[in-house]
Amino acid sequence: MQVTNIDIYKDFSFDSYLKLPGYSYSSFKKGNYTPTEKMKLGTSVHQFMLEPSKYNHENRDVIYPIANVLIKDLGPMLPFLDAELSVTCDFEHDGYVMPYRGRVDLVRMGSLVIDLKISEIPLNRSIDFFGYAEQLTGYCLAMGCDTGMIIRACPKTFKTEKATIRKNIGFWEKKVLAHGIPINNFKF
Amino acid sequence: MELTPQQSGWVKLAGIKETLVKDLNNAEISIQGILADLQSRDHAKIEHAINEAKSVFKQAKGIRLEFTRLIDDKLINPIMDYEKRMQKNIDAGVVIELEARKAEAMRIQAEQIYLNEVAAFKTHIKNELARIKNKYIDDLRKGINVMYREFLLNKEPIEMLESIKLHAASLISSFKLDDFQRFPLNAVTEQQAHEIFMDFEKYDGTQDLENAIYSINDVFKTYQLDLQNAEMAILANQQKQIEIDKSRLEQQTFEKLSNELIDDANSVKLEMPKFKNEIRIVNDNTETWALNIITHFMKNYQFISKHIKVKSWDKLTLGQMSTALAKHIQETGEQIPSFQIEEICK
User: Fold this and answer.
1) At B7, which helix (H) or strand (E)?
2) CATH number of A31's domain
3) Number of compact structural domains in chain A
4) Which chain B residues contact residue A164 at CB under 8 A?
5) Which domain holds residue A68?
6) Inter-axis angle of helices B287-299 and B318-332, to 10 degrees?
7) Quick check: A160 contacting B, CB < 8 Å?
8) Is A76 in the B-facing interface, judged by CB distances under 8 Å?
9) How far apart are the CA of B255 and the nearest CA of chain A, in angstroms?
10) Fewest Cβ atoms closer than 10 Å to its Cβ: which of A119, B8, B253, B271?
11) pLDDT tens-digit profile of B33-75?
12) Burial class (CB within 10 angstroms; exposed 0-12, middle 13-18, buried 19+) of A166
């Protein structure tokens, strides 16, 4: 797998990100995307931590403690990380190329991707169930990072859990072959 | 057919019960007769009738108690003894299970301490190897730049450039790698630590020294020009080095924090057996104890009422009050000096 034509977008809104070309991990999820209450909770925590100007200060009683445990866990790492970075690039494999797009919670380019999850489900179950390893592999490839990490905060216990993912590059190789076009056509 | 002693006993019991029921029936009818039409009698006769009825009642209760006591002694209690003995056995088993669980918890805790130390040691090795490498690279870079600065300050003639570069290369070649800082070992043995350490690729600095010697040419390539205005060249070089230092320090700090975060995420967290600690108020079965329970129950009632469940309030017992108070103490950690507390691990 080769990654080319990498473009990084800082200070880029989520709506603008959605208009970027390319397949994201979500493109391959089945079913329609309708945000649930729990997803909205996650969005609020993300906004409070990473894009405070967008946080509407609803549900502060829940959002604050969740965000605080995450901030505590990340601690002195935070100043070294870029938040809500969008990326587009091309994934090339076996003569085919597929445009990719992704939006990462926290990243140190070339080194570490961190995805924050607000969920009651332990990571040993959710990583496989929701395909987090595949999602983060996409981010790692696009951002040139060795390590993809998930930090989960439980909205009930306000405790965190961390795990690094085992990269599944094969997943993206198959997607390139299934959804990509021959490189020669693409470059032409 | 001849009956066994037990069958004969049951037949006999049936006879006794039949007689008892007849006697109780007669007593009931007798009391109904004694107390009939009371309203029409004067007070003395009513009082006499009630006393007479009480006497019949007492006698009836006596024969009933004699029968039920017999049932209790000969039938119910011996049967219940089975449950008591079984419960006693189970209780003994529960104690053994608790001890086994505690032993398991201690074993797992010791293993967790060992695993945590292994993880911390690995992180330490990573950080130390990175520190030694970074310090060596920085020393080489700084060494070259210090010499460059000194040669400029001394305004060494350009003819000396090649020998200056050779001197610089010779000097930085004498630089040594920093010592590996020891990690305080407790749970991990020296031998285990050595094996862990051997799994890591060591840094010897050879490649970075070659790169640094190669970079001497780059650093000194403007020497002739820089000599024309040595002070300004030194200042510009200092500024560049400050920027490099800043950037490298940021990267090194990030790497250290990142190593720690990743190692923490990858560390093995063993599942500990669960224990439930329950607080109980020791019952010393004294009047003072009873009064203390009542006093503190009433004093804290607003907080402990949620722990009270009774079908009928007249059945509320001191035991229930004590249990509710114990739950309150457990929940809040409140100290009540009047009571002796015991903590039961389950």
Assistant:
1) helix B5-34
2) 3.90.320.10
3) 1
4) 262, 265-266
5) 2-187
6) 60
7) no
8) yes
9) 9
10) B271
11) 999 999 999 999 999 999 999 999 999 999 999 999 999 998 8
12) exposed
